[in-house]
Structures are given as structure tokens and as C-alpha cells.
């Protein structure tokens, strides 16, 4: 098997990669921690894959976090744990939440003392390690999202979860543009709060201030509208989120 030919074709669905993943899971089922050198020796002996091709496959699996040296999991088995699976699906289905909100919602949906903060952090670290999720900071908040989701778009969802910012964005979607006083009157929140959240949205380039006329940033309007529609279904727009 030519290494140069194999490398560009590799993927988790590649037949030979699937064989090596299956062998890795068999090793773990024996109660062993995964040792990359041991996996290589067994794969070479049992699967009879030429050396260069096997090295390429194992390196691919390590780079993609399909396997991790010293772990008792593979990417195939990491979600077998019911709590970890629940956490992953919650993050996938609720874009733009930070740690405290994830914790609060999971605790609410589970029986008391079923999972503690330490356990939640450990499961999140495992999901991060195997690149099923990723995290980024917004101010003092750590946001967790599926690894395939764009961070800049997720940040829009985070901001749109705030009730006042959501109202501002909704109004600009409908009216296209308006002044601060008109927004304040339409949203029916205190002037100080409305102006503060307008400032945040301007600082993040979600809305544009053009001679005191406010409007959505046309380059981001598609994603802003999608975020508002998504959160409308979720019904999670309240001040407690942020």
C-alpha cells in the first residue's frame, strides 16, 4: 500500500481505517489502556497492513483524535457513557450557551446529585480531548459548541440569547433601520439598558450606526436572522441566560 496514495484518501470511513479502529476497540474491550505502539504491533500482525500504510493510518487517527495514547476510549466509544452523551447532545442542540447555563440546565433535568460540577467538567474535557466539541471565551464566559460549528456564528447566538439584544435585533430585522430613541420606545425597556445593549451590538459589528440610523450589518444579517429564528423555537430568551 503506497503511503503517498493512501494519505489523501484517508477518512474515518476508509475500509482499512475502520479495521484499525475496530482493533483499537477490541484492545480496549480487553481492559487495556490504548497504547499506540501496541496497537501498531497488533495491527501489523493481525491485519497484515504494510508498514508505511499502517503508520500513515495510525498517524491520521492520532491527528484526528480518533484514538488517544493512554486512553480507555476511542472516538467511537466516547459517547457510550450516558452522561457524556447527554452533555454532547445538549451542547449540539443549544448553540451559544456558556458553562454555568449548561450546568444549570443539566442539573435541572437530572435527579439531584446525579452529576456534580467536577463530573461535568471532566466529561467536557473528554469531549474536548476527542474533538467532538470546542470552546472559546466571550468576556468571562466559556462557550461550548460542536467542533464543526463556526465560533463567530456561535457568538451571535450567544449575544442573541440576551432578551434586550434579541428585541433590538428582531426590531431591526423587521424595520430595517431606526434611531436609538425609536428602538427604546419600541422595546419598552429602560433607556440605559437599551443603549447599553445597542453599544455591545455595535462593538461586535452586528449592527451599524450610520448617522444615528441603526441597521443590521448586511454581511452578518443572514446569520443574525438564523440565530433569532433558532432561539424563537428554543424559547430561551431571558436575562438569566447572560
Q: Which secondary structure elements does this structure contain, and how are they paired or packed?
A:
Blueprint: H1 3-9, H2 15-29, H3 36-46, H4 51-63, H5 82-93, H6 99-109, H7 117-129, E1 133-138, E2 141-146, H8 151-160, H9 163-175, E3 177-178, H10 180-187, H11 191-203, E4 207-210, E5 213-216, H12 221-234
Antiparallel strand pairs: 1-2, 3-5, 4-5
Helix pairs in contact: 3-4, 5-7, 8-12, 9-12, 10-11
Give me some keywords for this one:
disordered C terminus, 12 helices, 242 residues, 3-stranded antiparallel beta sheet, single chain
Tell me what you see in this structure.
This protein has 242 residues and is mainly alpha-helical. It has three domains: 3-63, no CATH class; 78-149, Winged helix-like DNA-binding domain superfamily/Winged helix DNA-binding domain (Arc Repressor Mutant, subunit A); 156-234, Arc Repressor Mutant, subunit A (Orthogonal Bundle). The protein has twelve helices and five strands. It has helices at 3-9, 15-29, 36-46, 51-63, 82-93, 99-109, 117-129, 151-160, 163-175, 180-187, 191-203, 221-234, and strands spanning 133-138, 141-146, 177-178, 207-210, 213-216. Strands 3-5-4 form a three-stranded antiparallel β-sheet. A two-stranded antiparallel sheet has the order 1-2. A hairpin with a 2-residue loop joins strand 4 (207-210) and strand 5. Helix 8 crosses helix 12, helix 9 (163-175) packs across helix 12 and helix 10 (180-187) packs across helix 11 (191-203). The radius of gyration is 24 Å and the shape is elongated. Residues 1-7 and 236-242 have low confidence and may be disordered.
Amino acid at each position: 500500500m503506497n503511503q503517498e496514495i493512501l494519505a489523501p484518501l484517508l477518512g474515518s470511513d476508509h475500509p482499512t481505517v475502520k479495521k484499525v479502529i475496530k482493533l483499537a476497540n477490541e484492545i480496549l474491550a480487553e481492559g487495556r489502556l490504548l497504547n499506540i505502539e501496541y496497537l501498531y504491533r497488533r495491527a501489523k500482525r493481525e491485519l497484515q497492513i504494510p508498514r508505511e500504510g499502517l503508520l500513515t493510518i495510525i498517524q491520521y487517527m492520532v491527528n484526528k483524535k480518533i484514538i488517544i495514547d493512554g486512553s480507555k476510549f476511542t472516538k467511537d466509544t466516547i459517547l457510550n457513557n450516558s452522561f457524556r452523551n447527554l452533555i454532547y447532545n445538549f451542547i449540539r442542540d443549544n448553540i451559544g450557551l456558556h458553562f454555568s447555563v449548561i450546568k444549570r440546565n443539566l442539573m435541572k433535568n437530572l435527579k439531584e446529585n446525579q452529576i456534580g460540577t467536577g463530573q461535568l467538567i471532566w466529561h467536557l474535557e473528554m469531549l474536548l480531548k476527542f474533538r467532538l466539541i470546542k470552546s472559546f471565551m466571550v468576556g468571562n464566559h466559556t462557550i461550548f459548541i460542536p467542533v464543526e460549528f463556526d465560533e463567530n456564528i456561535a457568538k451571535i447566538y450567544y449575544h442573541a440569547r440576551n432578551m434586550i439584544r434579541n428585541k433590538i435585533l428582531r426590531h431591526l430585522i423587521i424595520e430595517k433601520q431606526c434611531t436609538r430613541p425609536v428602538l427604546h420606545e419600541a422595546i419598552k425597556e429602560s433607556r440605559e439598558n437599551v443603549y447599553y445593549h445597542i453599544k455591545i451590538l455595535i462593538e461586535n459589528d452586528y449592527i451599524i450606526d450610520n448617522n444615528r440610523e441603526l441597521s443590521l450589518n448586511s454581511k452578518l444579517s443572514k446569520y443574525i436572522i438564523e440565530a433569532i429564528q433558532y432561539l424563537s423555537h428554543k424559547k430561551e430568551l431571558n436575562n438569566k441566560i447572560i
